Amino acid sequence: MRRFPKSRILKIFTLSIICGTLWFLSIHGQNMEQHSQRDLKKIAPVKLNFRAPAVEDYVLDETVNLEEVVYNKTFSMNKEPIFLASRNVTQPPEQVTSRGLIIMSSMRTGSSFTGQLFNQHPDVFYFFEPLFPLQDKCGMNLENKISTLIGALTCKVDKIVEIIVTSLKEANFLLTKSTSDTSHLERRISNLKKCKESSLCFRSSTKALCGEDLCPQVDSCSKCRMFPTSKQIEEKCNAANLRVIKTVRTCHLDHLSRVRSSIGENFKIIHLVRDPRATALSRLRMHYGLGNITREMKINCDFDVTNLETFKNRKLDPVNNWLHGNYMVVRYDDIVMNPINFFKQTTEFVNRDVTGKPIDLHHPDVLDWLQENTRSSEGHFYSTKRNITQQATKWRNEIEMDMVRSVQSVCSRMMEYFGYRKVTTASELKDSSLNLVLPIPELSYGRGKR
After folding, report:
1. Residue limits of the Sulfotransferase domain (predicted)?
2. Backbone angles phi, psi at 99, to 5 degrees
């Protein structure tokens, strides 16, 4: 018998294995193709994610108790926005049936009061400052800020908790390394622990989380020692028709375009502003006369101008005009003078061009809260209780003319853009017959589009 060399036997054996493997893969591939055809509609297209890098050097240096937000900000307005393609791949928009609304504002502009008007509606789930754990420059932590906003508007509370936990770990680490005054870090850690405890920052500011089912046997939600779980928060959030975020930590409208890409078309923005002279006086008192209020107001006014200009530019852009009909300027001055008109115009705005059940902000619960909370002389800086009719013009009799001139100088464009009349004398300032709040040029109040 002829004997084959071992090397030839090894080659024949190897060839047999290869042929068997190819046969198996061909049969398996046919089965996979059949499954792929059936599941084709379930596969989401991959999209290139575009993001706007920060164009401001926007510092949030905050000293915060759980009921307060105090910050100093500096940023440069001498650059134009630049859009770069990101390598990150985003998921398709969340399948959300309810609406999302962000109230974008700055400190001491009446945002807490305005947010509470939405919070009182039984069909609203309200988030008060969900970006509180992220207190860095505008361009830093941008991914986490956007993820937090998306998580809130889609009721993904685990994502919010994850960011709270990460921020708490970072603060604890900084505390161990700090050699200077650590009081700021200690306050931050204390507040973040409370956020973690409730699975959400400022839980007591969300009416939906203060019912008897989650806070029994106490008359104040802030005293409640029963903390909601992430699942309980998500259930309440998902049951709401409108999810509202109030934040003073949103830097630029273009950053919110990525939120809209994930949420879909049922997403709107209210840009809340206030007479900068009134804001300056309020900040001065909050800081007990310390700090450079004029510099703060320049930053604040530039912020408002930049975002209004962004809206106007996007409105004319046939490709990137998503803000058209989805952005509304609201002046706090108008709210306190005529809250019923605000309800009417805002109801029209939030229901315009959206799917799902309409929502009427002119609701008995909202009106009852308004009646109860606008006849108070309480003076706490972060209270939402105030005499609303006096609040509208009270500042005019209390502010010094030197401060008025300084604010008008650094906020000239903002006042022109948003319809605030300047004064030149103390007599004009105190003349109650002289209206300092005029129509907004080229932009009707309460209208997202003309």
Report:
1. 101-417
2. -95, 155
Residue 46 in domain: no
**Total domains present in the chain:** 1
Domain assignment present for residue 449? The answer is: no
Cα 337–288–116 angle (5° rounding)? 35
Q: How far apart are CA 87 and CA 325, in angstroms?
A: 30
Is the full-model pTM beyond 0.85? Answer: no
Q: Are 351 and 358 in contact (CB under 8 A)?
A: yes
- Where would I find the beta strands (DSSP E) of 199-292? 242-247, 267-273
The maximal CA–CA distance of the chain, rounded, in angstroms, is 124
Q: Rounded CA gap, 244 and 108, in Å?
A: 19
Mean pLDDT lowest for which of 30-39, 154-163, 350-359? 30-39
CATH (domain of 180): 3.40.50.300
Contact 418, 308 (CB under 8 A): yes
Confidence of residue 254 (pLDDT cuts 50, 70, 90): confident
HEC profile of 49-83: EEECCCCCCCCCEEECCCCCCEEECCCCCCCCCCC
- Alpha-carbon span 249 to 148, nearest angstrom: 12
β-pairing, 47-51 vs 84-90, is: antiparallel
**Residues facing 90 on adjacent strands:** 47
- CA angle 150–107–105, rounded 5-degree value: 45
SS3 state of residue 274: coil
E runs forming strands in 124-259: 124-128, 242-247
Are 283 and 400 a contacting pair, CB within 8 Å? no
Structure tokens at 89: 């791949």
Rounded CA Rg of the chain: 27
pLDDT digits (tens, 9 = 90+) for 207-225: 999 999 998 877 788 888 8
Nearest Cα residue to 130 out of 144, 114, 110: 144
87 has pLDDT over 80: no
Q: 254 is in which domain, residue-wise?
A: 65-430
> Strand 61-63 and strand 70-72: pairing?
antiparallel
Instruction: Retrieve residue 20's tokens.
Output: 């068997």
CA 371/CA 360 separation, integer angstroms: 18
Residue 368: CB atoms within 10 Å: 11
Q: What's the CA gap between 327 and 307, in Å, rounded?
A: 10
448 occurs within a structural domain: no
Ramachandran quadrant class, 381 (left: phi over 0; alpha: psi -120 to 50; beta: rest): alpha
- Residues 349/448, Cβ–Cβ less than 8 Å: yes
In a domain, 135, yes or no: yes
